Amino acid sequence: MEIKLDLRKNLSASKKIRIEEIQKQIVPVIARTTNINIDFTEHDISHALSVEEMYTNCFPNIDEVLTEDEKYLLIISTLIHDVGMVGQSKYKLEENYDKELRESHNYRSGDFIKQYSHVLGIMDRDARVIEKIAQGHRLVNLNSLPESEPFGIGNSIRIRLLAGLLRLADEFDILEERAPYLVKEFLNVNTESAVHFDVHRTFQGIELHGNTLKIVSYVPNSELEDEVIKLCAGICKKFDEVKPILNENDINLISIEVNIVATEVVKHEIMLCLACKGIIEEDELINEFKIRKMDDVIEALRELYATGIIEKNAMGLVLSEKLRHFKYIKDIFIGSRHELEFTKSIYLNTYLKNIFEDYVKSKFGVFYEKGQCEDRINILTHSPTSIKYFFDSNNTPYEIGSVDRRTTLELGLLHALAIDALKYPEELTEEVLLSSKAIEEEVNNKLYSFLKLISAIPQAEKKNNSL
Question: Do 46 and 150 belong together in one domain?
Fold first, then answer.
């Protein structure tokens, strides 16, 4: 997507040249903004230029409201506002240095301009203003900044306004260019940072309509929906802080309108509702989702009907038990925040009872008596990891030496239960423990040394009893 830097367009040739010279010098420095916090989203020149682009695209009449000096100083402040994120090698091993960089980077950006203004060819009076604007892009109480200060002969600079503009425009850089997918995958960023990368990919666009700024996001699951809501709430909070300053200076941005399109999330919620209830009438199902946009509910149902995932019978609506539909539903929920609800659902329990004997015969080549089937289903309906293991074709074991498929299957189920024992200790009910011990006894004589895999279960049982 081409970046249009319209705020520079009407500046004098000399000021344009100075900005370009400063930009060339600053690029190698801000290219290092993730040298300590490697998992963070981008704070480099592409981010700075995106923020600059926001000024003319998100703030009504800004080109007419700002003076040439204000535009010039705002652009330079924007270029350097995140330079404080760059870590210095002599401190990189200090404890909590990464956190310090993040929390104080606006102040460190101000310090940078003080220290290196002459290297960048910036006059002292310019540097003092740029320092305040850069520091004011976060944390600083905007009302503590001067509303206006004399600047040169007969001119003034509205420092509070420029800091407010930078603070809000910085929040508006939310599109996926800010968090490239390739960067996330190649760096293998940590779980917390991965969520931030994924959030940026949900945003469709941001555009000014009259005096309202419209933001659209398409969320694929409830986890990202929560994060998008949180991010947009932060944007709206910053807007509330800055709005009076904007309006006082004839920049009439009246409101921010956020449209979170949650059809995919509603689709998942409908499937989970059906999984837990087993069967439900359509009117009752729709009534369950009164807090959702009715358009999203209707569209989600239309797709689920069309793809055959939801079926109608004389009693109401049910989830399809066709193998491909089951795999689709299972893959949505196992590994999500709703995995335990799905694992304990009527749908999964019924499905397992219907297919268990045939499935273990075809995939593992073993036969179980009725009581043995119940023990294994009992494990499966209380342990999401065991579901993932059981239905993963890559985990279908071959006979190895004297260890038959039955034993390796048992060990896989017990290992999965051990993994979940610490995550979901409340699921280690007496019934589940009895089932796990029955399975343990069956393999005990054949493979005693490997039973250390389930050593976490007794520990989790104690933890559960202490809750």
Answer: yes
Alpha-carbon distance 43 to 446, whole Å?
57
DSSP-assigned letter for residue 101: H
> From first to last of its 467 residues, what are the pLDDT tens digits of the chain?
678 899 999 899 999 999 999 999 999 999 999 999 999 999 999 999 999 999 999 999 999 999 999 999 999 999 999 999 999 999 999 999 999 999 999 999 999 999 999 999 999 999 999 999 999 999 999 999 999 999 999 999 999 999 999 999 999 999 999 999 999 999 999 999 999 999 999 999 999 999 999 999 999 999 999 999 999 999 999 999 999 999 999 999 999 999 999 999 999 999 999 999 999 999 999 999 999 999 999 999 999 999 999 999 888 999 999 999 999 999 999 999 999 999 999 999 999 999 999 999 888 888 888 889 999 999 999 999 999 999 987 776 555 545 567 788 888 899 999 999 999 999 999 999 999 999 888 877 666 544 454 555 666 666 666 65
Are 206 and 301 in a shared domain?
Answer: no
Stated pTM of the model = 0.86
The residue range of the domain holding 312 is 263-320
CATH number at residue 291: 1.10.10.10
Where residue 183 sits, what CATH number does that domain have? Answer: 1.10.3210
Q: Is 154 exposed, middle or buried (0-12, 13-18, 19+ CB in 10 A)?
A: exposed
Whether residue 42 is found in the same domain as residue 191: yes
Structure tokens at 332: 């949505």
User: Which 3 state secondary structure label does DSSP give 398?
Assistant: coil
63 and 51 in one domain? yes
